[in-house]
Amino acid sequence: MASQLRPVSLMVLLSIFSFIAQAAAVTVPLSSTFKYVNEGEFGDYIVEYGANYRVLDPFNSPFQLCFYNTTPNEFTLALRMGTVRSTSTMRWVWEANRGNPVGENATLTFGEDGNLVLADADGRIAWQTNTANKGVVHFQVQPNGNMVLQDVKGYFIWQSFDHPTDTLLVGQSLRAGGAARLVSRFSEKQNSNGPYSLVMEPKRLAIYYMAPSSTKPKLYYTSDRFSVKKGRLQYVTFQSEPVTEEGFSYHLSLEFSTGVNAILATPKYNSTLSFLRLGVDGNVKVYTYNDKVDIGAWETPETHLPKLQTHLPCKLNISLNVPSSPLCSTSTHFSLSCQEPSAAKIADPIKLLPSSPSQLLSLTLCSSIYLTVASAFYHHRPHRMQSSTPMERSVFFSLFLLFSLSIVAQSTVPSNSTFKKVNTGEWAEAISEYSSDFRALDISASVFQVCFYNTTPNAFTLAIRMGTRRSPAVRRFVWEANRGNPVGEDATLTFGEDGNLILADADGRVAWQTNTADKGVVGLQMLPNGNMVLHDSKGNFIWQSFDYPTDTLLVGQSLRVGGVTRLVSRASDKKNTNGAYSLVLEPTRIAMYYKSPNSPKPYIYYASDLFSIPRGRLQYVRLVNSANHLSLQFSTGGGPELSKPSFNSTLSFLRLGVDGNLRVYSFNDQETSASWEETFTLFSKDVGIWESECQLPEKCGKFGLCENSQCVGCPLPNGHKNWTKSCEAVKVTVCNKNFHYYKLEGVDHFMSKYGVGNGPVKEIDCEKKCSSDCKCSGYFYNTKTSMCWIAYDLQTLTKVANTAHVGYIKVPNHH
Fold this sequence. Notes:
This protein has 815 residues and is mainly beta. It has 6 domains: 61 residues, no CATH class; 124 residues, Bulb-type lectin domain (Agglutinin, subunit A, Orthogonal Prism); 193 residues, Agglutinin, subunit A (Orthogonal Prism); 129 residues, Bulb-type lectin domain (Agglutinin, subunit A, Orthogonal Prism); 133 residues, Agglutinin, subunit A; 120 residues, Hepatocyte Growth Factor (3-Layer(bba) Sandwich). It is 8% helix and 38% strand. The strands form 16 sheets. Strands 13-18-19-20-27 form a 5-stranded antiparallel β-sheet, with no helix packed on it. Keywords: Disulfide bond, Glycoprotein, Signal.
């Protein structure tokens, strides 16, 4: 037994040591570190609690990191919610150091070790994330208000969503083993813990009041509606969920881990920009923000919560008799006096619905998945581990590992969250991309919904579409499961108790699956950012669609080393297979390639210093929204800014199109017409710092001369003709010597601008290379640099002023 366990245990220990060593070796790129000082002028806008504030750079609309104070020289580091375009009050939705303020000239530092530290001017540490040397490489405020520290794979090492104060944003939870309560602020002026708390208990949510003279909190609200009869609560999440499949309106609800929803409100605005607050007065309210208006941005929607009785400090001696009402089972005597009030058990009319499979748990945009070893056990029981022998420790660790794996294997999806959806029924009536037909499934969030769609009969793709029923604008497909491997009518999408998500044809043929069987999955959900996730009982992502882009990157989505490193275009609007174009993450740059019909390898048709790094190696490139700008963010820091949409830039995506162009589209979910805006085009008629359309390989079809983004000529052996789509070079059909070349001066092939070429070589040697290759259609040469490019497909040639750039086109001798 011992001899069998020793090698396994040694391997496990070596793996752990290797993991720890690798994490310690990873550092934050110097360009991503920062040190902010709390100094300077205060902001001009109205903020909650009548506070003064100073904004910091970290921002993702409508959330921004700030220092604020309500009493002199006592500052809190906090996230505020609101935009400068609105005159409405900006509200504080998360705080780092409540009850432990810092002063003027305090600093917020994010160092190379990955620790985020708030310190007073004298160096006293008031708050920190305790993430030094844990593999952190990146800091970000996400579009949902979650401030995160990430490793090289994008997993969360730390997130503000794990540390709520008095507020839950959409997607944020109270959970067993973490923060299980909200605690009110003491007063608008005094930012310390107040007397009220909303607590997640094993069987219920309850609200307590801690009176000054009391030794323990008094319960002042609970309800059967906030309780569970079976099981124990592992989490309660504040969530936004569509009322209809088309996402016409949304409920705000509390979702319980046991599979029950308590609907709170149906706001008029975008419900994803909402929060639940335990107020200074002990009441619980929901606030919803409209980031598209200048005034009246906040809505406090009518909720199904009762008007809670609140308990003030003993200042008044007033008694109120509350008569019987639909909210109270009996008359209640409530006294604002020195007497302690008793708990009122209120039968509130909160509607409860079973969770749909897609609405079990609202998660953050990404989730931390990192190795947790038995260090806590060693720490809590040092005497036991010190007294044991190495063999005993080895045996224990192996058993511990096997026990952990068995727990994962035993985790199953609750039966009320499993589903089997069949591709059958009527088509939806809305307009969708590629002139496709589609059927919507009841897996949705915000503007995103899972669908079956087809562009050719009986060849369906499972996809996520973007758009709303309120807008007649086209719905666009931003992720696909089974490109190139379609399913037919009556195909099924099944989410079973084992946690595997399977797309299969009616005959049982599996077309696509997540391969997550028996890996601890307990739920599936569509997140408000368009990420479809399978998660475990702790909310960690076991699988996510963001890891498998096709031709599109949504905000927050990445290309990354060790995962998907390229976008691949669609073949055509009708044909949904991989196309000819790819955008590729390389060690020091992003480059774009075209795979022509005859070339043995792809041609490069775009690269740029703007898409490159001078040192280091790229681990990922991510599409991010910062201060209403959309940019590509490099793992080494920095990256090119692409656009500044006039709409909500978080609802945007980057697309590698059928034509090889790279575009950004932004969606306005508040607009009923003209919802889409094309905010960036890489190859454009207005070149600027980007590229001309002449650089697109197929701009002029099979053959053509391009100038100023227009196809201006068909350069045939007997002279230039006006370009038409039928323009085509004369082919050498027999592999022999019966051909010659005709010369074109002042032209570039699309590959010669960014391709390295061969050389320096003599022009005659360049010709020989083409002549000896039967597939060569022509060659291009720079007489000044003596560089040579062999072309297997001619396609688009660009007219240039420099006559040193020449091309030679191969034609049969009889022409």
